[in-house]
Amino acid sequence: MPSAAATRPFSATSHVYPSHLPKLYKSGRMEKKFVTATAAVVGIGYGMAKYKQYQEQQQFVNAEAEAASRRQAEAMMDAYADRGSLAELEAAVRAYESQKKN
Q: Cα–Cα distance between 68 and 61 in angstroms, integer?
């Protein structure tokens, strides 16, 4: 038969922790949620800013490539003329062949 002393729960006469610690632990739950949400919002904002910066950079690169392509096409049109007559067509063929040899 168990004795009455064995069924009695253990208790200390003095507190192990200061009295303000339980209040801090309880408020920490809400602070942890707030910190997690803040970190998520900051991370999403950073990702969106980087994506926008990347898109602007790609547009700039594409615009430069398109301008270079347009300049090259205009130079070829100037070199080969509009081929309105046989003489212009022969001159264009000679220019093309000389360019191809180089």
A: 11
For 27, the 3-state DSSP assignment is helix
CA separation for the pair 13, 40 (Å, rounded): 45
Structure-model confidence comparison of residues 68 and 76, the more confident one: 68
With H, G, I as helix, E, B as strand and everything else as coil, classify residue 4: helix
In order, the DSSP letters of 6-48 are HHSPP--SS-SS-TTHHHHHHHHHHHHHHHHHHHHHHHHHHHH
79 in Cβ contact with 93 (< 8 Å): no
**Tokens of residue 88, six digits:** 């212009």
Tokens of 101: 């040899």
> How confident is the model over 6-35, as pLDDT tens digits?
565 666 565 555 565 555 555 556 677 888
- Distance (Å, rounded) from C-alpha 102 to C-alpha 98? 7
Give the list of residues 6+ apart from residue 96 with CB closer than 8 angstroms, or none.
79, 80
C-beta neighbour count of 10 within 10 angstroms? 4
